[in-house]
Each structure stands twice: as C-alpha cells, then as structure tokens.
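Per reviewer request, we include the raw input and output of the structure prediction for the construct analysed in the revised manuscript.
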Amino acid sequence: MQRCLLQLMVGPLSGVDLVNALGPLRDEDLNRFVTDGYLRLSGVVPDEVVNRCREWLWQAMKLDPDDPTSWRDPVVRVFGSTAKPFMDAMNRPILCAALDQVVGSGNWQRPIVGTGTFPVRFPSEEDPGDAGWHIEGSYSVDGRLFVNVASRDRALLMLILFSDVGKSDAPTRIRRGSHLLVPKALLAAGEAGLPFEEVVPRVAGVDSLPVDLATGEAGDVFLCHPFLVHAANWPHRGTVPRFMSQAGLVPSKPLDLGASTGWHSPVERAIRIGLGEEQAE
C-alpha cells in the first residue's frame, strides 16, 4: 500500500517526524535543512509510478531483472529521460509544495523536466571508480562542470529512490553540515567559480563531519543543498540493484545572497551562514 504521509528527516537518519502530506513544512524542519543540508521526504512517488520507471530503466540498460548473471558491472549509468513515468515522478504536488518552501515559490522552473543521471548500482565487491567525495557541478565551461558561490544554474540536488535502499545497498554517503563550509571555499573564485572536483579539497574540516547514509524506501526523495558534500558507496552487499536518480533543480532566477532582502529561502540562508553574513538559529 502506498504511504500517504510525508516523512521528514529532522536529524541524523535515525529520527523521523511525520507531517501531513497536504500541509507545509514546519519552521523547525526548514531550520534543520539549513543546519544539516538535507531532508528526506518519504512516500512522494507512488508505487505504480516507481515500478514503471524501473521497468523503463531495465529496458534502457538491456539487462534482465531476473538474471543476476547478466549484472556484470558494479554501476551502469543511464542518462535522464523525459518519458511520462519520470515526469509523473518528478512533478508530484507534494514534492512541489516542499520545493516552494525550501527554494522559494517562484524561484525554480516548473515543471521539472530533468531527471538527472541514474547511477544504477549492482551487488558487487568491485570498486566502481566513482566513490570520491564531491559536490555537484552546475554549469559548463569549456566542457568542464563548474560551481560558484551563488550556485549558478542549480537550486537544489534531489536524490530520488526508485528502489528500497538499506545500509547494505550502497546508499549515498552524506557529510552532514558540509554545505556550510563550502561557501567560503568558493568565495575567492568569484563569479567564475571552480571546477566542481576542485572544491572539496579546499574545504577545511570536512573530513571530521559526521557521515549519514541516504537510506529509504522506493518513492522517497532527498532534498539536498547544492553545496552538500556527498559520495557514492561501495561495496554493494545487497541482493538487488539500487535504483536512484540525481536530479538538479533549475532556478528561475539567481539566488539572492544580499542583506537588503527581508526574506531568504533556506537554500540562500545556508550560504549566507557559511559566508558569515547570517547567524544560524
């Protein structure tokens, strides 16, 4: 049976808070996003939509879901799709309502048309070769992905689970609170920004932050600050593939990091706190 409640992670992944799916996120939930850098929304995508998306991915990979001997690689990457099941998954009213509160109503492009890449991870002890700590790049310069302190072209990172993901299923690793350390590392690069892979090595103290795991059930969505440091996980010691998409939310206008505005979204507040322009609550 499809769950009908919005379940929010309001601390480390060991604790949850239930909020009516039709109601707004509470101030304490949004403050937790500012502090931790992410929220998990549970039961966003209905089971039947999840199943149709997963069937599409199996066909795209040309692999047999019933024949584990055909799963030869530790990870297979599938580019995003605008097929109807994925658009249905990405534009759930419950998700859009949460995005309005985290990013700001009118601050992101509707409808969501990008599902991002699907790094499908298969049971394997083999190093997938992509498990380094990083933040997402958001715009291209001469074929390289860059990011700047204003998070140009990216309002949010969304991790959408299309399968159940437990601790043994190679869940994404998250450095809780790392998004607050990134802004100062980007500040000196100005508007031009830095190649995304050069950012984390410049962030002092990130290695001492706690690590959370992006575990959950199929249909859950993680809303992650664009500066949240994260990494793939291995080995995958589960029995079934892990299906997840990494989608970037496109802003409709640049982030407002100035002091003159009376209200800032949680995404903007976190950057301002990281720059020392605002105090955390």
